[in-house]
Each structure stands twice: as C-alpha cells, then as structure tokens.
Design goal:
single chain; alpha/beta; Rossmann fold; three-stranded parallel beta sheet; 12 helices; disordered N terminus; signal; Bact_Solute-Bind_Prot2
Length: 360
C-alpha cells in the first residue's frame, strides 16, 4: 500500500477544466499533490460511470489528502488541450490523459514536459510523444476477439461466405486503428466479404446509424449476414438502422465496452457480443501509478508488463486482458464482477429476456 503525502482531496469538476481551489467557506486549501484526470468524451458511457469514479476512489484510498483535477473534453481536442493547460497552471504534478486525438495530444505532452510533469497515456495511446507510461488493454486483441467471434458465429450459422459491414471507431483514436487491424486479421481470409466499411467520427451512434442506413441501401437489407461494430454505441446505431428498415431477424452484431444498453441488447438477442474490459482494475492501476509518480516514486512493482511503440519511443505499458461476452457468459463476467447488477440489466422490458437468460 502506498503511503499518502500531505495533500488534500477534492473530486469536484471545476469550470473550464480546472479544479476548485477553495473550500465551501472560501478558505484556501493546503498545497499538496495534485493529479489531473483528463477524459475524452461522455458519449461512451464508461468514462463517467466507471473510469472517473473508480480512479477518484482509488486515489482517495491511497492518498486521502490528494486532489484530483477532473475534466471531460466532450470530444473536443482543443478543449482538452485547454483543460490540460489549466491543470498544469493549477499545479498538477501528474497528467492522466485519455486523448480525444491521439496525435494532437503530443503538444499537451510536450507542454507537460516543459513543467517536468509526467504523463500517463490512459486507455488510448498518445502517438509521437515522450509519454512516460501507457495503461490500456491489448487493443489489437480486442479487435481480434470481435472479428473472430463474428466469423465463428457466422460459420456456426452456415453463413461463412456472406457479406458483412464494418463500422469502425473514430479515425482520430489510435485505439480504433488497433481494433480495426485486429478485426481485419480475423475477418480477412475467413471467406467473408466486407461489402461496406466506415470510420465513425467521434464514435457517434447517430453517425453509425447513418452509415448503416447507407450500407443497407447500397448492399440490400437481405444481403448483410453480419455487422462488425467497434463498440456498443456504434452497435446500437447500426441495430437501430436495421430495425427501422425492417431487418428481421437481425444479423449478429459485435460491440465493445459492455455498456448497460449493449448488455441489455445481448440479453434480448439484438446484439451478439461485446468486449468486456474490466475498467475498475484499469482505473485503479492508473490511480496507483499516478500517486506514485506524484510522490516521485517509480511504478508500483510488478505492474509494467509490456512496451508499446508510439512512433517516438517504446513506452512502458500496463496492458490488461479483454474478454468476449455473449448471452451465455453475461452472468459469469460482468454480473459476477459487479460491473453491472442483474437488477440493472433486467429493468423494465428486459425482465422476461433476463429470465430466459437465467440472470434472475
């Protein structure tokens, strides 16, 4: 267990990406270790519902007096750069940065280095920059899990030579490039034909829905045997487009992040699978590393298990293992881990589907 420096805890989000510097009575807080957590967007539910609270809780556990300067960039790279600048001006001693744009975030890293502030690239790899550490999952493996699950499902259904649609993630997200590469490694040469493929700006479900509508128009709704969707949000958009077009039954659709809506669709039989990335240990190890760096200590022993080249250097990395989730193992994965409770999944119209899936 890491011991705590003398610093004060504050987890409130401040205007313009900064952190509050006074108590409710207006008194200035004692100076101490400040850690900035800079997350990229809120369209993907995980960041506000899992990453942020788990990170803040772990920091408070390890360092009760530490201050977390929290900001969410709402998918705006310029806003994120301003938030990082504000955090540095406010005395942040470590930046934990999940970049909106993996390449443009290099400027933020350079600015942090000028202030001798270490940067942890969180979840998404910052490219072309002198990043100190990288914490994520094996993202190419995520894509391979998705692609292979789709290939295996279609083969099992006797549709190994049909046409699929690929709806990838944001072109500015280096992780999306890795997911795509992993998926193609499984799909290319499998006998399946990629009839249409799209990159989805901002990971937007609405844009994914429009892309799926285009694919249905160009390919024909009866010709698509499967859909590779890079995450649960884009999967939801693709499924909405197919349901609106009268596609029945729905073809297998992949996903990622084990969002509540995605798990509910899986239980209901609308989405085939998702990739569960245990965000709690990811956020917790980021908090452990950030507290250590804020104290001038090395990474906690035994945590760093890889190196990932970001175009400038081999970045010391902590890579966690993703897990494919289908209806058959929802209970033994996301429910067993407490990621979602059965009563959350089984609310409202999903009650009957949950009974069939033996979640309740």
């Amino acid at each position: 267990m890491l011991t705590a420096p003398a610093c004060k805890s504050e987890n409130k989000e401040a205007p313009a990406g900064g952190s509050a510097t006074a108590t409710a009575t207006g008194e200035k807080k004692a100076a101490g270790a400040k850690i900035a957590l800079l997350l990229p967007e809120s369209k993907t539910a995980r960041y506000e519902s899992h990453d942020r609270p788990h990170f803040e809780r772990k920091v408070k556990e390890l360092c009760p007096e530490c201050e977390v300067i929290y900001s969410n960039a709402d998918q705006d790279a310029a806003k994120q750069q301003s938030q990082a600048e504000a955090a540095l001006t406010n005395g942040a001693q470590v930046l934990v940065l999940d970049p909106v744009d993996s390449a443009s975030a290099a400027a933020t890293v350079a600015r942090a280095k000028q202030s001798k502030v270490p940067v942890i690239s969180y979840d998404r790899l910052i490219t072309g920059a002198d990043v100190d550490y990288y914490i994520s999952f094996d993202n190419e493996k995520v894509g391979k899990l998705q692609g292979q699950a789709l290939v295996d499902k279609l083969k099992a259904d006797g549709k190994a030579s049909g046409t699929i649609v690929m709806i990838n993630g944001a072109p500015t997200d280096n992780n999306a490039k890795m997911f795509k590469a992993g998926a193609h490694a499984a799909i290319d040469g499998s006998g399946l034909t990629v009839g249409a493929e799209y990159d989805t700006p901002d990971w937007s479900p609405d844009k994914a829905q429009q892309q799926m509508e285009q694919a249905l128009t160009s390919l024909g709704k009866d010709k698509i045997v499967g859909v590779y969707a890079a995450n649960d949000g884009t999967a939801g958009g693709a499924i909405a487009a197919m349901k609106a077009s009268g596609v029945n039954p729905l073809p297998p659709v992949t996903g990622q992040d084990a969002e509540l809506a995605g798990i509910q669709r899986i239980v209901a039989g609308e989405q085939f699978m998702t990739v569960y990335k245990a965000i709690k240990p990811e956020a917790e190890v980021a908090a452990e590393l950030a507290v250590a760096l804020a104290k001038g200590q090395p990474a906690p022993a035994g945590k760093v298990n890889a190196k990932v080249n970001n175009g400038q250097k081999d970045v010391p990395a902590i890579l966690l293992a993703p897990v494919a989730v289908t209806k058959e193992n929802v209970k033994s994965t996301v429910v067993a881990d407490g990621f979602w409770k059965a009563d959350e999944i089984c609310a409202g119209s999903y009650k009957d589907a949950c009974a069939t899936a033996q979640l309740q």
